[in-house]
Amino acid sequence: MANSVKGMEWVGRTSVHHTLKEQHLSRPCALCVVQSVQALPSVFTLPSCHGDVIKLKHHTMEAETQGNITGLKKPTPAEAIGNRGGVGGEMEKKHYNNYHQNWKAHTPSELLWEKANQQGVEVLSEEFARIMDKEDPLREFRKRFSYPKNGNLDDTDPELCDAEQESIYMCGNSLGLKPHSADQRVKEVIDSWGNKAVGTHFSPPLPAGLCDRYGRELLGKVVGADPSTVVLMNGLTVNLHLLLLSFYQPTPQRYKILIEGHSFPSDRYAMVSQVELRGYKPEEALLEVHPREGEHTIRTEDVLSVLRKEGDSIAVVCLGGVQYYTGQKFDMGTITKAAREAGCMVGWDLAHAVGNVPLHLDDWGVDFACWCTYKYLNSGPGGISGAYVNKRHEGRDTPHLKGWWSNCEDTRFDMKKTCDVAPGVDGFRISNTPPLLVCLVLASLEIFDEAGMDRLVAKQFLLTGYLELLIKAYFGSDQVKSPSAKIITPEDTNQRGCQLSLMFSFPLQKVHRELSKRGVQCDIRKPNVMRIAPAPLYNSFLDVHRFTTILSQVFELCKTEAA
Ligand SMILES: Cc1ncc(COP(=O)(O)O)c(C=O)c1O
Ligand SMILES: Nc1ccccc1C(=O)C[C@H](N)C(=O)O
């Protein structure tokens, strides 16, 4: 067992391992010790007192379970999930802060079973869902959103559900819910316009002409990036185009773009048009990576293998951080590293990743990224999108489209003939930024920040795990009685976020229609998938339980009709 990190001693720096006693530890915890150390190599591994090797990145403190180490104690599921010391208490906060060490040492279902045992209730029972909700430190956040009722929805059947009851919203992967604070934010912008007319451009609370200054700190936090490297502008696909215009610089030797075989159509169309604009045929310039025969998700090793074999002909690697169809989260750090080593530019479409999974764009060394904010970030339909350009590209002198908002803010109104292009991502802006859209992102980011990504991810781990547990228990393929629902999203929790994608033994459209009639909001994607995405900010364990109960009713109906 190493007592030192490569290049630095940690023995003797044990004064900060404050959590030791509470976590039944028998030796100093490397993670706790390292928290006090300033200068560290960028990536290194250490033993942790929680029974795992932890891989740390400088300052991010991200720990990844790597397996057990002899002699160190892995917490039992009971230790991992129990002893929270009361909802909202200090212990509970620590509990969530330490979720990587504790929670990720087990599968969600191990933890859920253990919790149910502790409470003396059936893990499949509604009572258990209610207990989980009672203990959920994020439970109050639901009240901050407009949660739709059955009676408000177009597709519900009043005979089949109570109009006054809240619907079961499983669609945060498509469109997040409206925060109540959004109304006030929009009103402020409208009122400022009404009251001050052109004066609104430079008047608080949200000066229209400077509104792209706002929210950068919080947005940077959500994607793991310096605030100066992120910006709100345009729509997602527009941003993808603007970034590719600059980062896709094909040469006769290196001209391909690597994408997922099943990439989101808008991304594909954008890349097709980009290669065509440069005079290439999509068949020769778009390189696709696919799942293996009989599999649904793409193996990291297969992406790496393409990079090894074809890396020197690839100009840009551009994948979805979380795949929209399967819900698979890519190993963005590993792929980015390998692609950059192969000399490629690396961009991520984070539409389904932002606000869903932890992101570390700066640490991973990503070149560029873009995302919409209307899914897990709850900024409203058609909300303004985000873009990221790594700081190392600040001095980059490649042609890109310009407008007056590409100009440095301090000389913008000098009205010169030539554009004094702002460094980095700011230079990619073209038009002035719409405050009506920015204020909505601000409303949501503030809630996000209060909830905290760590706590959201910790809840997500259990909430989606609970959905998985119920689906497997009721509709798993070993339930030979059929009908069945098959989850195609990876079981490995490091490879997914909120969403599970399901395939059914019954016609998808029929199942979807019947669910909608009963107040379930979820979506289907052709050819074959239903996406269910409980969002930890506003979904409850009871929502998940109600969803599976209604799904069984629908299955029963389909079975009867098929007979
Ligand atoms: C992965 C992905 N890419 C692109 C888009 C299209 O986004 P927009 O219409 O904002 O350009 C979406 C949907 O929002 C998406 O999920
Ligand atoms: N903006 C929309 C407008 C209408 C219908 C769907 C959308 C979506 O955002 C779909 C989402 N991007 C998806 O992952 O399928």
From TrEMBL:
Pathway: Cofactor biosynthesis; NAD(+) biosynthesis; quinolinate from L-kynurenine: step 2/3; Amino-acid degradation; L-kynurenine degradation; L-alanine and anthranilate from L-kynurenine: step 1/1. It is an enzyme of class 3 (hydrolase). PANTHER family: KYNURENINASE (PTHR14084:SF0). Keywords: Cytoplasm, Hydrolase, Pyridine nucleotide biosynthesis, Pyridoxal phosphate. It comes from the Eukaryota. It is found in: Cytoplasm. Belongs to the kynureninase family. GO terms for cellular component: cytoplasm. The modification N6-(pyridoxal phosphate)lysine is found at K375. This is Kynureninase. Its EC number is 3.7.1.3. Catalyzes the cleavage of L-kynurenine (L-Kyn) and L-3-hydroxykynurenine (L-3OHKyn) into anthranilic acid (AA) and 3-hydroxyanthranilic acid (3-OHAA), respectively. Its cofactor is pyridoxal 5'-phosphate. Pyridoxal 5'-phosphate binds at L236, T237, F264, P265, S266, D267, D349, H352, Y374, W404, N432. Homodimer. It catalyses: 3-hydroxy-L-kynurenine + H2O = 3-hydroxyanthranilate + L-alanine + H(+); L-kynurenine + H2O = anthranilate + L-alanine + H(+). The keyword Hydrolase applies. GO terms for biological process: 'de novo' NAD+ biosynthetic process from L-tryptophan; anthranilate metabolic process; L-kynurenine catabolic process; L-tryptophan catabolic process to kynurenine; quinolinate biosynthetic process. One of its GO terms (molecular function) is kynureninase activity. InterPro entries: Kynureninase, PyrdxlP-dep_Trfase, PyrdxlP-dep_Trfase_major, PyrdxlP-dep_Trfase_small. SUPFAM superfamilies: PLP-dependent transferases (SSF53383).
